[in-house]
Amino acid sequence: MITLTLKEQPEVPIEAEALSPDVVSKLGNDELRALPIFYGKRQLRLDEFFEVEGELSEELEIHGDASRVKWLGRGMTHGQLRIVGNAGMHLGAFMKGGTIDVTGNASDWIGAEMSGGLIRVGGNAGGQIGAAYRGTLTGMTAGTIVVEGSAGLEVGMRMKRGTIVIKGMAKDFTGLEMKGGTIILGGAELRTGAWMNRGTIISLTPIPLLPTFAYNCSYNPTFLRVYARELAGLGISLPFEESEGSYESYSGDAAVSRKGELLVWQPAG
Amino acid sequence: MLRITGGRVYDPANEVDGEVRDVCISGGRIVEEVTGADVRTIDAAGMVVFPGGVDVHTHVAGGALNFARAMTPENHRNAAKFTHSPELRAGVGGTTPSTFATGYLYAGLGYTTVNEAAVPVLSARHTHEELRDTPLVDKSCCVLMANNELILDLLEEGETERAKHLLAWHLWAAKGYGVKAVNPGGVTAWKWGKDAKILSEPVPGYSKVTPAKIISSMAAMVDELELPHPMHLHCNNLGAPGNIDTTIETMKVLDGHRAHMAHLQFHSYGGDDWDTLRSESVRLAEFFNEQPNLTADAGAILFGDSVTITADGPWQHLLYQLTGRKWGNLDVENETGCGVVPYTYKGTNMVNAVQWAVGLELLLLINDPWRIYLTTDHPNGACFWRYPEIIHLLMNADFRRECIEKLPDKALKRIHLPGIDREYTLSEIAIIISAGPARALGMPQKGHLGVGADADVVLYNDDSDRERMFGHPRYLLKGGEVVVEEGDIRKMVDGREFIVRPSYDDNIEEYLRPLFEQYYTMSFENYPVEMERLEGADIRECG
Question: Tens digits of per-residue pLDDT, B39-61?
Fold first, then answer.
């Protein structure tokens, strides 16, 4: 295992896209220390900010408050990245495989445009999770993102496939212009599913709905049984038994195609 | 002083077709002979020597392009990057390269002159400032005139002579080189939410002004003013199925006046709608071949991402509705408009496949290479840095057949390309990328290697993979200096700007000033571009 310990919180953000198992697994300790990172506009060595232990490993662990370290695990294809503490913006952006675990909080744009792999955040996360970067037509196309706490704006914006689970509350515009995939929410603020074209948003508590979402029926979709079993492996319990309650189904957004699906859990009794 | 020795020289303007001969350079120009101890020699054995490339129609600077740059951050993220170095400025390539990168990329292809094809007078100042920051190439611009309401008002009144003076005044005010007509009458109509699709119907807001009248009067004005470049014309009905009739009608309306027909590919379609769209390149080429007053550029498309940018506002709104993607619309007061829509040409899409074929068909069927030039209407059909792909397609019929096989079946019935065996020779390529466009632009010092020409010379390794050959010049000389060597930029030089000063009656300003103060949002004194805004201006007096 390779362990990096942040010496002190940097004054301006560090851009550290080299900190991914793909890069570090091939490097000896000396090479690791010399890895280039950007501190503002200046290119510096990794060991100016981190204590570096270990070498040649696909397991990378980062200790300390890395909330000002951006692009961790960018485009990684395999291996494990574990952050004991907080992570900065763009964590796991463009990721294709492997796993990322964050024990603390993560920032905006985690898993943006990812196409595979798993990101788990123990605390809260920022906005634009699994989203498309500004201008791009599609966000994440595969993979899973699980956030134990709350999330910010535009979660899953333009996502096409894959799963995002926010156990706490998500802010406004969750699933904005969504094209497919699934978002599971502990709850959400305003305008959930705005302009969604396809895909499924499941909320486990009542949420405010846009007027462009139409009520269909209340039922227990069969696919949720399969889905719940899959998610149970990630420690997520999704209710599906009729004895526990049912899902209110809505279609929208009628401002665009009306082909999106919004399911809101209603406990029995 | 410099001698390029041992290369096979292709200089079609001087009827040199692949002869091994020396090219001598002194003082930035081609000379008969150089002697003395300080003559540097470039051994060009095994290389092919061309005059520097000339792009007759491209969009590389100005308000519309900048708008497109801002609208498409996604195209910058994955684009080629130029990082800051002692020689280079930082920048990005991609579909709408930044200013300095535009110069680097054109030079990297062996191009030394580019004509920015659509500049409103109102944003000319900005355009010149961007062109000033586009190094390594010489520049010129065409100024948008065919929807200028003050000029159309004079045509309505039948005051053609005064309209001509007004046009000339505007051309000098913009520090332009040529006159551009985009969808004549149609952009004005767009301000009423309409278009001008029929050449003989009055333009909304007018009773006598029709697109046909604008086209014929403006082409006549350009000829009377003796401008070096003919009227640069983007026909009505661009991109629409069945627009071949409009295009041929336009050529008839020109009635012998000179015109350069821009991006002809977008104007050569038959059919009634998108399902029945077909290539009409044969009909167009046959008619065009009989019109010695006309030149054209291909406006070919290649599959992949592009950004469409044009003054043709109504077309862009339609394209936005077809794509459901982003749409930018600009209004340029009384002069013109502009629309921006990102677009992806797909090889699996029947319409796009037909468009791909039409561009190549026109280049292959128009029999005089001196009258049809290689362009993609950058960035509309494809980016200029993809020209080598088209050259390979033109020079290698087997490769073309391989590409045709990948097209959807229903496209094959709608195109003529499978039946065309012609392959371009190196000499013909030299004509369509350099000698021809230089002649059409009326730039006698460009596009050839005769004595007195600007020493813009490009050396390629002769390579049967023409895409690799034309994409990676071995050397590029700009004004006699080696600026690119094996893909690396060796020396930074600024380009010149070619502008014309047409003669006009000075009293026209007294006519214009009160109208301008009534209708425009800026003050009259701030309207014309000052000479100080241009770097290295090369002024040509006309008329």
Answer: 999 999 999 999 999 999 999 99
Separation of alpha carbons B101 and B284, rounded Å:
36
State pTM to two decimals. Answer: 0.91
Does the CB of B73 have a partner CB in chain A at under 8 Å?
yes
Topology at the third CATH level for domain B52-440: TIM Barrel (3.20.20)
Q: Please determine, for residue B157, whether its predicted confidence score (pLDDT) is greater than 90.
A: yes
- Within an 8 Å CB–CB cutoff, is residue B324 touching chain A? no
Residue B193 gets the label, from left (phi > 0), alpha (psi -120 to 50) or beta, of: left
In the DSSP assignment, the letter for residue B433 is: I
CATH topology of domain A2-267: Pectate Lyase C-like (2.160.20)
Q: What's the gap in Å between the CA of B305 and the closest CA on chain A?
A: 12
Between B325 and A60, the more confident residue is A60
| Residue B339, SS3 per DSSP | strand
pLDDT tens-digit readout, B160-202: 999 999 999 999 999 999 999 999 999 999 999 999 999 999 9
Task: With CB atoms and an 8 Å threshold, state whether A135 touches B75.
Answer: yes
Give the minimum alpha-carbon distance from A31 to chain B in angstroms, rounded to a whole number.
24
- Show the CA angle centred on residue B168, arms to residues B166 and B169, nearest 5°: 65
Residue B128 has what pLDDT? Answer: 97
Distance of CA B488 to the CA centre of its chain: 26
Inter-chain touch A135–B325, beta carbons under 8 Å: no
Residue B75: list chain A partners with CB under 8 A.
Answer: 135
Contact: A135, B71; criterion CB under 8 Å: yes
Question: In a mutagenesis test of the B interface, which of A128, A136, A197, A198 is the best target, namely the one with the most B β-carbons within 10 Å?
Answer: A136
What ipTM was predicted for this assembly?
0.78
Q: Report the residue of chain B nearest A136, measured CA to CA.
A: B74
- Delimit the domains of chain B by residue range: 52-440
Of B193, B215, B220, B219, the C-alpha closest to B204 is B193
The answer to whether residue B543 scores a pLDDT higher than 90 is no
Instruction: Give B325 to chain A, closest Cα distance, Å.
Output: 8
